[in-house]
Write a structure and sequence with these properties.
Layout lengths: L13 E2 L19 E3 L13 E12 L5 E8 L13 E5 L4 E5 L10 E3 L9 E3 L15 E3 L26 H5 L1 E5 L14 E6 L4 H6 L3 E7 L6 E8 L5 E5 L2 E10 L22 E4 L2 E2 L11 E6 L5 E9 L4 E7 L8 E6 L2 E9 L1 E4 L4 E8 L3 E10 L20 E3 L1 E6 L1
Parallel strand pairs: 1-24, 2-5, 3-6, 5-12, 15-19, 18-27
Antiparallel strand pairs: 3-4, 6-10, 7-8, 9-11, 11-12, 13-14, 15-16, 16-17, 19-24, 20-23, 20-25, 21-22, 21-24, 25-26, 25-27
Bound molecules: copper (II) ion.
Length: about 425
């Protein structure tokens, strides 16, 4: 069949709700998370491959109830002012290769800090007790969630083949840093064209604790043919002609939860706290929702339409939460607006599905698209529910204090 490339998707639900045009004088600042294109990173002169170096730092964050909690976040430029939860968004083209260096340098993790001054450990800092390196909770890794990686580069300590000596949790890779090769050589294609879509990366050391502490970020695979392809699949239009579906704008929504018990310094090793998860804070892009009808600027997306223009916005839902989540888009008069799901877990659905809400389980991603052709304001929102019974969290859940368990965001479409 003829490949017909057109800009506008015929599959995505075209939304013309006749919302009254609003005059928007305020330009909100969407939350800025740094974007690292792994393909344009510095070329390492020894390996001749692009190399990006990530580190880990502590970030103190004051939540909406005024309580400060500690997080651990990935960073590239790690001055305190640059630290974000989630960590930087990583993007690369399918069919390319790159290296990501996990450069340690965060202390302490789960104990008191010591900075080493001698031998090969100079400058390295980690906890001082116990004095052995047998504690599995020293160090960090980068795990590309859902991508096909060789176990050596998969960031899962339990399956490392350390120095050909078999798996060990006290790997030098965890302690001193390690270069993860993300390859796409033809013989061993690991980031292949099927992966075009949304993925996530996270630390896989003592995963429950380190995820909870904030060690995650978006990993977006783009098509080499056209970076604005929503997937590498061609879809039939109304005339049964295959065509690519392109987006114009993208909005990442990293969905996560916080149980403060996990953030206490004493929450380490395998304490009983890890058996019971009771989130108190619910986050989209590291931000709690606001109360009532107020929407935080950080949770606002602005789209401007030129006369007669339709723009396709892909919303990349990434679930790194430890609960259930339901995503929907509300109109200004509270009706659910349809959108189309194209990818699930970074893989194209055979048939895109137009719906008015989607569920997102822990570890899932979904790429959904909405076509915008008229001025108006939409309210994409995430409702959180208990993983054990899918009951929506509310203020009296299990007698614990739960804050703002619906995170409302805002999509402001302005027509020129
Ligand atoms: Cu970690």
């Amino acid at each position: 069949m003829k490949k017909n490339v057109i800009k506008q998707s015929v599959i995505a639900a075209t939304v013309t709700l006749g919302l009254s045009a609003i005059s928007v004088s305020t330009v909100y600042a969407e939350k800025v998370v740094s974007l690292i294109d792994l393909n344009t990173a510095t070329v390492n002169t020894t390996t001749n491959r692009t190399t990006t170096s990530l580190s880990v730092r502590r970030l103190k964050k004051t939540m909406s109830d005024g309580i400060e909690h500690e997080f651990w976040v990935f960073c590239k430029s790690c001055a305190i002012a640059n630290l974000t939860l989630p960590g930087p968004t990583l993007t690369m083209k399918a069919g390319t290769s790159t290296d990501v260096l996990m450069n340690m340098m965060m202390a302490p993790q789960e104990g008191t800090a010591t900075t080493f001054t001698t031998g090969a450990d100079i400058g390295r800092a980690d906890r001082s007790e116990p004095s052995t390196f047998d504690n599995p909770y020293i160090g960090h890794t980068i795990h590309l969630h859902g991508l096909d990686m060789e176990s050596e580069f998969d960031g899962v300590p339990e399956t490392y083949q350390e120095d050909f000596g078999g798996p060990t949790k006290s790997s030098v890779k965890l302690r001193n840093g390690f270069t993860y090769q993300i390859n796409s050589d033809p013989a061993n294609l690991r980031v292949d064209p099927r992966f075009v879509g949304s993925h996530m990366y996270h630390c896989h050391v003592h995963t429950v604790k380190h995820l909870e502490m904030g060690m995650y970020g978006a990993f977006v695979v783009k098509s080499k043919i056209n970076a604005n392809r929503i997937s590498n699949t061609l879809y039939p239009n109304n005339n049964n002609v295959l065509q690519e579906v392109l987006f114009d704008d993208e909005w990442i929504m990293m969905i996560s939860t916080v149980d403060p018990e996990y953030h206490k310094p004493e929450a380490k090793d395998d304490l009983p706290v890890f058996a019971k998860y009771n989130p108190k804070y619910f986050l989209v892009n590291g931000e709690e929702g606001d109360v009532g009808t107020t929407i935080k600027p950080e949770l606002t997306k602005n789209i401007t339409l030129q006369p007669g223009e339709t723009r396709n916005l892909v919303i990349r839902l990434m679930g790194i939460h430890s609960s259930n989540a339901t995503f929907s888009i509300l109109s200004a008069n509270n009706t659910k607006v349809p959108f189309t799901v194209y990818n699930k877990d970074g893989f194209a659905l055979i048939t895109p599905k137009t719906v008015t809400s989607v569920e997102l389980s822990p570890g899932q991603t979904k790429d959904v698209m909405i076509s915008l052709s008229a001025a108006g304001t939409y309210f994409p929102q995430v409702m959180f529910g208990d993983l054990r019974n899918n009951v929506a969290y509310n203020e009296t859940f299990l007698n614990s204090t739960v804050l703002k368990s619906i995170v409302k965001t805002q999509l402001v479409v302005t027509a020129n």
